[in-house]
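Explain this one:

_____
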Amino acid sequence: MTQTAPIVTVLVPCYNEEGAVAETIEKLDSALAPLGNFQILAIEDGSEDGTLTVLRSLESRHPRLTVVPHDRNRGYGAALKTGMREAASDLIAIIDADGTYPIADLPKLVGIAIDRNLDMVVGARTGENVTYSTLRKIPKFFLHRWINWIVNQKIPDINSGMRVFRRDMARKFVRILPNGFSFTITITISALRNNYRVHFEPIDYFARKGNSKIHPIKDTLRFVQIIGRTGMYFAPLRILSPLLVVLAIGSTASLCYDAFVLRDLTEKSLVLLTMLLNVGIFAILADMIDKRSQV
């Protein structure tokens, strides 16, 4: 007799979460129970504490839980990629193990994805009870606006770690999805720039249990790099247009100065014009390649 595939597979990446993961799994199992058929994959990412021991104990008590261990720490995104390969369902949900997300709302996101036939439902941390550190709010303020510019729409939450998405959609971008924390930003930009059906549902967000694994300066720089790279994949003209405007203004100002003040064409103007031409041609070619790849 053929076994029916789960309605959803929930991926829980775990790294040094021995103090929080048990409560997270217990709440997940309880919250998802009304769905009937579901799967929980806990990807143990080479923790240095007792996370794996706790997970093995939970696995023996929860038949729908499967623990997938990494031999070493590979990163948040790598853990999610492992989970996608191991998942028995075409509908994937992800949630952190640290107790920051409202687990009780996850079935609601699953229901929205199924009922509306959406490609991704993001739990946007814009609910009434949201706890953010001030240190994380500062870089998010600028990154948020930059991503809004790239995708040409307002995004309520750029990198929420609680979301539901179709596995076949994620597989199309797997080559550019990073192994670190930038996984969620990248899949958000990729889905929106390629016109997938994405919905943002408001949720709460709580203070985490234990120490955060985010390094504000290093990870913000990495986010900038990833956002720029992903933008060049899917929106090269939009990424390069500010540089083109600056070069155009600089070239025009330099030519006017040469013509009306120096009454001679200088090398500076020629260099600026050459740069403007080269960047413009590169941007147009990159945009044509991007459009052709979507055909």
About this structure: The first strand starts at residue 8 and ends at 14. The CA atoms of residues 123 and 201 lie 5 Å apart.
